[in-house]
Amino acid sequence: MSNSSERERDRDRDRNRERDRDRLVAELEEDTQKGKYLTFALGKEAYGIEIRFVTEIIGLQPITEVPELPDYIKGIINLRGQIIPVMDVRLRFAKAYKAYNDRTCIIVIDVSDLSIGLIVDSVSEVLSISDLEIVPPPAVNKGKNKFFKGVGKVAGEVKLLLDCEQIVNENELEDWTTN
Questions:
Q1: DSSP of 24-36, one letter per residue?
Q2: What are phi and psi of 178, to 5 degrees?
Q3: Which of 4, 47, 101, 150 is the most buried (most CB within 10 A)?
Q4: At 67, is the secondary structure helix, strand, or coil?
Q5: What is the four-CA torsion angle of 58, 89, 148, 140, rounded to 10 degrees?
Q6: d(Cα 67, Cα 99) in Å, to the nearest integer?
Q7: What would the pLDDT profile of 94-146 be if each residue is shown by its tens digit?
Q8: Distance CA 80, CA 78 (A)
């Protein structure tokens, strides 16, 4: 066998090992995030977002309004050079507007390769909620529960668990990314 063939075989083996290692790291990372939810409040209700979607939590900062967007999209922010649309979750859920205060913050999430800031009243904590503690949202208001993937039952309380991929629908994602 020639030296070049051996080197090529070694490179292929190294690439395969690297690919396997990257896959294992990704699986372990996902495994450590499974069942973890960042909880936050909107008024008296408690909500949760799967931690795997959360990039960071930042304080409220100046928001530049953009014309012709839905009311619940407050505008855009410049986060270390990245332009991010910002959504007021209260308005998205058809709740009454509440003036922002010192506890109001922005949860930056990544959904379908797009970063989005979610304005919430306050952030609470990260909780572990097992699949056994999650039930489907009630079918009280057919079609109106599309933002929720379930209800977490934690220490006698309920947390409405958001479906991050439904908070922004496909058409909105296309509109935001093509403008």
A1: HHHHHHHHHHTTE
A2: -95, -10
A3: 47
A4: coil
A5: 150
A6: 21
A7: 899 899 999 999 999 998 888 999 999 999 999 998 888 888 887 765 556 67
A8: 6
Provide the CB-side half-sphere exposure for 4 (13 A, CA). Answer: 0
DSSP E strand boundaries for 60-147: 73-79, 82-88, 105-111, 114-120, 122-128, 134-135
The answer to whether the beta carbons of residues 61 and 75 sit under 8 Å apart is no
Q: Quick check: 159 and 149 in contact, CB under 8 A?
A: no
The DSSP call for residue 169 is: -
Q: Which helix (H) or strand (E) holds 178?
A: helix 170-178
d(CA 53, CA 88): 17
- The pLDDT value given to residue 118: 96
Buried b (16+ CB within 10 A) or exposed e, 45-81: ebbbbbbebbeeeeebeebeeeeebeebbbbbbebee
| Residue reference for tokens 């505008």 | 75
Question: How many residues appear in the chain?
Answer: 179
Residue 177 banded pLDDT, cuts 50, 70, 90:
very low
- Tell me what pLDDT residue 17 has: 77
Q: In the numeric block, which tokens belong to residue 116?
A: 């989005």
